[in-house]
Write a structure and sequence with these properties.
Number of strands: 7
Number of helices: 4
Length: 148
């Protein structure tokens, strides 16, 4: 097992139509408004930006995200990640009743020297940190969608 590789999968059920959810998720530069753990997003060009995020641990991760797939018809958003994390992340949205099932998938390798140094003993903490970040994002997005 490579202790520096992670595969995450989260499902958010949201009380809004998929197209409304997609419209929010495609505007990554606005994530800090509603996702508390996303501290900053800086667009570099039309397809690339940097993001800084922090959850429970007192440590910021910085990545460059490059759009790989932006498909409103299929309701899929996918980015390539580099920096402290190297890999990809993808949102896949589907209608579920009157709302949306938002599937978030991510496969990354940790590149941050500090996180690599603590790869084995820190793995459960890093996974819990990610879970808390995803919970904060789901709550923030649900609140934003209710307010619209």
């Amino acid at each position: 097992m490579d202790w520096c590789r992670y595969r995450f999968r989260s499902v958010w059920r949201l009380a809004a139509p998929p197209d409304a959810v997609y419209a929010v998720l495609e505007r990554a530069e606005e994530y800090p408004r509603w996702w508390p753990q996303v501290r900053e997003v800086v667009p570099l060009d039309e397809h690339t930006g940097t993001a800084r995020f922090r959850s429970l641990l007192p440590y910021d991760l910085v990545v460059t995200a490059e759009a790989r797939r932006r498909d409103p018809a299929a309701r899929i958003l996918e980015v390539r990640l580099s920096g402290d994390l190297d890999g990809w992340a993808r949102w896949t949205l589907a209608e579920e009743g009157t709302g949306t099932r938002a599937l978030y998938e991510q496969e990354v390798e940790v590149r941050s020297p500090l996180m690599r140094a603590f790869a084995v003993p820190g793995r459960p903490v890093f996974r819990a940190n990610h879970a808390l970040m995803m919970r904060g994002g789901r709550r923030g997005l649900a609140a934003l969608l209710r307010a619209v």
